[in-house]
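Predict the 3D structure for this chain.
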Amino acid sequence: MASISDFFHTPQRGSGVRRFFTGLGNGMAAYMERNARTDQIRFYQQMSDADLAARGMQREDIVRHVYRDRFFL
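Done. Predicted structure below.
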């Protein structure tokens, strides 16, 4: 059985300035989201095991809980 795939590269149109600021904005958004999630992880790590259990979590569930909307864990 043969399979064929095509890839067409279409260069983006627009000014270099627009692409620069779009990239800068995307980078800043990613940094802010990552920083906010790091704060959440620290918050849960500082809790006692009893406090985590009251929330229905164990210590190994912290990262899964913080990133549950991103990775569907």
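The helical segments are 16-45, 49-54, 62-66, 68-71.
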